[in-house]
């Protein structure tokens, strides 16, 4: 299967992120609220308005379901509805469609609108499922012999994050303050994080609820699609707070997600298997087929007013555990999963030094600063830095792109008087 | 201030949990959905129906706000609305009220209805802020010299829990399965938890949102009220999974909350200070006044078909950090807090051996089983066991009760074929 051509010409351009094969879901600011849209070429098809005008019926018998300005109600309707809308939009946007003249009036230029949250995030769970990342971090903290925790090859290690801090690409991120303890100090200080970092991840959007334990195959069916995800992390706050109950405020400033949810349906041609198991997994984690995807990823950093430098290139196929395995593990306790749950893959690092998905790894804890194009260096993020994640699966004559997930670091807010020590 | 008398006679009885001084908020099953109610004596005043019938206007100009069957929309309106409803209900239910005859028709017997979730929990954060509990657990795991982690006296240690697993008192709890690793084994097994436990806590209900860092005084104002909370915990699953990112599936089976949210307003006479600081706190954690409450708590355990035994008695004033301090700390990173966020205090253990708020502590890791009245013993919870938490602040001639928070342990579900190793 090659490029599916659209009457939206920009969708057929070589290297376009959003050909007809993709059709990712997003939301954009419109009339004081937000509308649901689907990316096609350099445009967005305004699906909320199509539905309101009666030109498309997304949920027969249920009335308009996109009026709330995000895709949550649509996703909640399940795989039958997902497939029906995809088929309808594919037909409407295909080259030769009779509706092209009418539909052209529903196109909005991506360049003209701000993006909004595509889905209401119920809860956010972040995993630690990249072996290269876990090995790098473990080596820095515990030495190469003890790099991987004893449980790592058996459990997709995860922890609950904070859904209220998930923001859409383009949202500024304010440098956090927190308790940090200098190595030579007995007591902590309350200070702006000096080791503020990003984490390159992919996020899975849970599209169906569960009640009780689900298999990896069932978990895969529950996933609607994937987004780029940047889990901003304050390494100095994390180092002091994380024992014994894990990261908390170090991860609660913000998690940025890309504006486009790429449906699993668009990624099917790019499935690849998880790597060979270094230790046999328990049966409940067995995969019925390939559950990762071949998605090339890159991270760029642009200092304030400066040009961007690509500082890392990696691939989602480097993960050790798939999102489906993570989701299956998430349900073992009986934990109910809900529509809109966001499952972070964990930092996606490859084996090479320039394939590392965080500055902690790229600068090896600050010991080897990363050099940007203009000669500046970075150990961790500086105020004014813009971080850009990109990703795409490369098909035969087309690509399934994720767009970009960006965020600019703003200086810490002024310290209130009552917080001055 | 002594007992405020009500025309609902049972509210004036000595030892009643719900005198006119209390007026806690709950929700109860009614007509296929749920209604909002306020406990008074052994009855519930159906406030949803009062509002629907136009007998009370809770949010002037906003129409009916209790139609959704829980108190979330009410709580979101803030302290002015909280105070106005409390004043109106106090007047309506007071001895001598002219409305008594009419209002009597809006009373429902507590014994006749099932309780429902009083609020939609946005996110659940659980703390580890009881010094006796942290010392007990630390002593068992690391010895008495290293009992408290280095950060413990500086940070209210917390982690994000799972809101989807929060259930109301009376909901059965199914014993979880999970990865457990026996001490003499190299590899984990997938098995029902054999060390399933409770944790006695109090939960604070966040009633106002925040954007950016708040002081302890502001945090206290954001809290609407408190509930009993049982954070069910699978100790064997926890022991294997919790390094390095904290508890995950071991805490995700269920967290039970009591049916009644006791408003902060009812607890004002019972404020007490946190204990003397063993190490000075950073300024942002300084308390402007007493932020704990003198609330006597007890835990009872009833085996299937058997009588209950009280296995622990303690008091909320044993906490080292208050909920207001925890909430202030929660916002340091800029983490937005939302209406309906639930903040677990952490396990409330006192200094005495019979004042410990978990079986892990009461049985000292299983080494010293707890003996029940009928002679049975418990290291951890058995199938069929019902756990009952109770709490009350004792005033001069009246008490502010929390009712009870109960849950019965059901056997693990049958293992699906695909999960058999």
Automatic annotation (TrEMBL), chains A, B:
Substrate binds at residues 128, 142, 238, 242, 347. Its EC number is 3.7.1.2. The active site is at 133 (proton acceptor). The keyword Hydrolase applies. Pathway: Amino-acid degradation; L-phenylalanine degradation; acetoacetate and fumarate from L-phenylalanine: step 6/6. Transmembrane segments: none annotated. This is fumarylacetoacetase. Its cofactor is Ca(2+); Mg(2+). The keyword Phosphoprotein does not apply. InterPro entries: Fumarylacetoacetase (IPR005959), Fumarylacetoacetase-like_C (IPR011234), Fumarylacetoacetase_C_sf (IPR036663), Fumarylacetoacetase_N (IPR015377), Fumarylacetoacetase_N_sf (IPR036462). One of its GO terms (molecular function) is metal ion binding. Keywords: Calcium, Hydrolase, Magnesium, Metal-binding, Phenylalanine catabolism, Tyrosine catabolism. Residues 124-409 form the Fumarylacetoacetase-like C-terminal domain. It is an enzyme of class 3 (hydrolase). It holds the Pfam family FAA_hydrolase. GO terms for biological process: homogentisate catabolic process; L-phenylalanine catabolic process; L-tyrosine catabolic process. Ca(2+) binds at residues 126, 199, 201, 231.
């Amino acid at each position: 299967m090659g490029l599916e051509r659209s009457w939206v010409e920009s969708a057929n351009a070589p290297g376009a992120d959003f050909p007809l094969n993709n059709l990712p879901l997003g939301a954009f600011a419109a009339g004081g609220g937000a509308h649901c849209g689907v990316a096609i070429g350099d445009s967005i098809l305004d699906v909320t308005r199509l539905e309101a005008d009666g030109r498309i019926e997304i949920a027969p018998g249920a009335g308009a379901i996109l009026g709330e300005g995000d895709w949550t109600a649509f996703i909640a309707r399940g795989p039958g509805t997902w497939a029906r809308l995809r088929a309808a939009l594919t037909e409407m946007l295909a080259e030769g469609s009779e509706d092209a003249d009418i539909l052209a009036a529903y196109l909005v230029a991506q360049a003209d609108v701000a993006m909004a949250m595509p889905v209401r995030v119920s809860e956010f769970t972040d995993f630690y499922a990249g072996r290269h990342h876990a090995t790098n971090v473990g080596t820095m903290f515990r030495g190469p012999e003890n790099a991987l925790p004893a449980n790592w090859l058996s459990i997709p290690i995860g922890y609950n994050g904070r859904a209220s801090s998930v923001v859409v690409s383009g949202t500024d991120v304010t440098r956090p303050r927190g308790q940090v303890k200098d190595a030579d100090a007995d007591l902590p200080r309350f200070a702006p994080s000096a080791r503020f970092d990003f984490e390159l991840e992919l996020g899975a959007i849970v599209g169906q609820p569960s009640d009780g334990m689900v298999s990896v195959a069932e978990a895969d069916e529950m996933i609607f699609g994937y987004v780029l995800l940047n889990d901003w992390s304050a390494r100095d706050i994390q180092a002091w707070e994380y024992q014994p109950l894990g990261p908390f405020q170090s991860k609660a400033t913000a998690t940025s997600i890309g504006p486009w949810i790429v449906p699993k349906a668009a990624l099917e041609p790019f499935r690849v298997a998880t790597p060979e198991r270094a230790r046999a997994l328990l049966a409940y984690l067995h995969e019925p087929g390939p559950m990762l995807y071949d998605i090339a990823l890159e991270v760029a950093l642009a200092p304030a007013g400066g040009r961007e430098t690509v500082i890392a290139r990696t691939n989602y196929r480097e993960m050790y555990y798939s999102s489906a395995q993570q989701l299956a593990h998430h349900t073992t306790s009986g934990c109910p999963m809900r529509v809109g749950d966001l499952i972070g893959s964990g930092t996606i690092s490859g084996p090479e030094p320039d394939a590392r998905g965080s500055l902690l790894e790229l600068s090896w804890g600050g010991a080897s600063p990363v050099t940007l194009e203009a000669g500046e260096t970075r150990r961790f993020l500086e105020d004014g830095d813009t971080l850009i994640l990109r990703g795409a699966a490369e098909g035969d004559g087309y690509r399934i792109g994720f767009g970009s997930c960006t965020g600019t670091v703003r200086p810490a807010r002024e310290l209130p008087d009552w917080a001055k020590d």
